[in-house]
Amino acid sequence: xxxxxxxxxxxxxxxxLFTCEHASRRVPSPLRSSGADRRWLATHxxxxxGAATVTRELARRTRSPAVLARFSRxxxxxxxxSDSPDWIRLxxxxxxxxFNRRVDARERRRRQRRLHDPYHAAIDRLVERGGPSRPxxxxxxxxxxxxxxxxxxxxxxxxFNEHATLGxxxxxxxxxxxxxxxxxxxxxxxxxxxxxxIERHGKAHGVPHLELELRQDLVDTAPRARTAGRRLAGAxxxxxxx
Length: 242
Fold this sequence. Notes:
Blueprint: E1 5-8, E2 16-20, H1 35-41, H2 51-62, E3 66-69, E4 91-92, E5 95-96, H3 105-129, E6 136-143, E7 146-147, E8 150-151, E9 156-159, H4 164-176, E10 181-183, H5 196-205, E11 209-215, H6 222-241
Parallel strand pairs: 2-3, 2-6, 6-11, 9-10
Antiparallel strand pairs: 1-3, 4-5, 7-8, 9-11
Helix pairs in contact: 2-6, 4-6
């Protein structure tokens, strides 16, 4: 555990490496959140509901390591480059976030140095530790069942860009297990920057990488999230061992 990330060991030499960029709604010191801020931090704006528990269950069941961010995406987004316009959001749905009210260039550099960079450095170290047998990188995220007027019927999305064959194989395995699966939905991995974190590390180390998006009403309690992790683990192990 560090201020920027949690390392969940899972096991040594496992065939996968899991990341969870939006695992936490934590606002690290010296930042302070107001009561109104905390109401937003508890929603899908603040973190990916259920994603952290799913990630730990996947790591445990596949005996593979995981890296989970320990700061809210509203503090700075681990799944965006630091020069992205939405790397730090000043407001959500009209609410101005108190802890982002006085963000200047110096504060942006501080958050990058203390949070964003250490998180990504931890992923790099784990990939390199795998030696010649590099793992499949899998980022775990979740999405809200309703966004605006859009009601999302899919239960699970598999996002990919370069690794379309691998992504489609995983989608078929998951569908065979009873999931309502969509490829590159509700977001597309082919959109530049959409799967920034795993694409960054996958390309840097020459390893395959995919992102999973789970619908939040299926993982919004610990038992549901662990069940989802157990089901997903079987398909991922079949993918890497097949």
